[in-house]
User: What shape does this take?
Amino acid sequence: MAKKDNMKVPAGKQMGPGGKGRFGKPQNVKGTFFRILRYLKGYWFLIALVFLCITINSLSSIAGTYFLMPLINEIFESPTPDMTRFANTLTIMAVMYAISIVANYLQARIGISITSGMLHRVRTDLFSKMQKLPIRFFDTNSNGDLMSRFTNDTDAMRQLVSQSIPNLFSSLLTVVGVFVMMVYLSPVLTIIVVAMLVVMTVFVKTIGGKSAKNFMRQQAEVGRVNGYIEEMITGQKVVKVFNHEQDTIDGFNEINNSWFEANYKANALANILFPILNNLSHINYAITATVGALLSIGGIVDLGTLVSFLTYTRNFSNPIGQISQQITFILSALAGAERIFKIIDETPETDEGYVTLVNAEYNLNGELVESEKRTDMWAWKHPHSDGTTTYTLLKGDVVLDGVTFGYEEGQTVLNNVSLYAKPGQKIAFVGSTGAGKTTITNLLNRFYDVEDGKIRYDGININKIKKADLRRSLAMVLQDTHLFTGTVRDNIRYGRLDATDEQIRKAAKIANAEFFIEHLPDGYDTVITGDGANLSQGQRQLLAIARAAVADPPVLILDEATSSIDTRTEAHIEKGMDTLMSGRTVFVIAHRLSTVRNSDAIMVLEKGEIIERGNHDQLIEQQGKYYQLYTGMFELD
Ligand SMILES: Nc1ncnc2c1ncn2[C@@H]1O[C@H](COP(=O)(O)OP(=O)(O)O)[C@@H](O)[C@H]1O
Ligand SMILES: [Mg+2]
Assistant: This one.
């Protein structure tokens, strides 16, 4: 997002996620279908029940119609109408229709619990997968796009299971059932109906095919409209700052127009299709009725049979239209499911690390051993291939040895960077934006892995360390702070979930956040919403520092942690920061050179290389880049 902020947006060429063709046809209909079935595991009984209900519903309504024949024949065809038999038939008919209604109701009720269960599983899988994906994944997928997996695509799956498939099944069943009954009642009339049907099918195929294509396009356009809206809501301030309101509206109009067009075409065709189909079925009905009447006069069919048959004709064309419509729905829902599965199938962040962080203590012989208790001493437990296990005290000794790295192949961001930080040392990185400072920290906590060279932590190659344990031993104040919906207290506690209220207050004091927190309406219990929109950027940074302080790790990384804090407040928190840094290995990245002045070593980075190193005095003496920066001969940014 931030990278795009200052891009000029020409009118009508607006940015926004969700390209064309997102809602294509599914690639693998069968595979995806079976995969959805797997999400329905444990519901087989209920699903069988649903299909049973659908079957009962369809068959009883077909049977209900059939009983029109004896009913009418009793009155019109029989010389002496038997009223008791008439009443009995009427009762049976009523019972049939009642059964059909009950089955329909049950089907809907059971269907809800099946789809809720399935959606619950799909969302759980999708969300937990998202938590396991490497940072790299989020670099290449837009938020809006990911969100639509949880909204549009899961909803399509819900419709698939709760409506499309049951409807398809019921339509097929009705068509087959009605056909059988029609043949049974009058083969001659059936031939007429089928002939008409062929005409209708050809018609549906030509127009319906086009409609289906437009229907898919329309869905893709909905995705684009949503993505655009979401992006512009998040970027509202930037839009206003650069006076891009009109451009944004123009861009929206363009996307909205193409949605309109697609929607119009899809529905216009569908809207023509259905009236025409309707009329065709009226014509069908009229022809069948006329021929039927002639046959009836000729005594070939009786009146009851004719009425039953004609009623069936009415119930015949409707499900046929349904079938083609449901197939379109099913295909687009399967495409949605495929997009969900694609994320679920992404390779998670791998972790081949086997060195773990354990509580440690010295035994009577003075050896470092693992401890069951919570000691305040930690050690790296390192199992070796020869079966032995060694323990190394967690000290926070960090070495970068010839580290080379690029986010994309062929693009070197860091080139042969070597440095060391002894436990308790403060190492500073300075250099212009894009020099690679944040990238170094991304490698330290293994958001990304080095391409070449090694990073050692307490003498252990960090590739061997389990990621969770590595990250536990480092606290980071990221360049982009993020606060979660919750109280101020909860947000600080995020650094260490078992921290007591007292420890939280202490951490807030260290970060000098205590003062402003106490002035918030509910103090520590003030609820922060929308990523801390009700706090200033500087206040958010103070909370982020407090969060790192409460984590209490041996290594601390501060990436522009005080960039939005004014110099006076910074001077205020200097003491707190010194307390926070003392006894820890600290990597500081700062624009303000006063913050890095007292570091043990300052690394000046340029284009991914360390061009100068030394402490403040040495670098000043060198009269190089740092000297220029410091004396203001060269401004950062
Ligand atoms: N996620 C990423 N994907 C691709 N390139 C990136 C990514 N993050 C940073 N870069 C590039 O790496 C270079 C160094 O960035 P960074 O380490 O963030 O610089 P800084 O010194 O300002 O912290 C820049 O050229 C930047 O464009
Ligand atoms: Mg940076």
Summary: The chain has 20 helices and 16 strands. The longest helix spans residues 245-297. The pocket of adenosine-5'-diphosphate (ligand 1) is lined by residues 139, 407, 413, 431, 433-439 (CB under 6 Å).
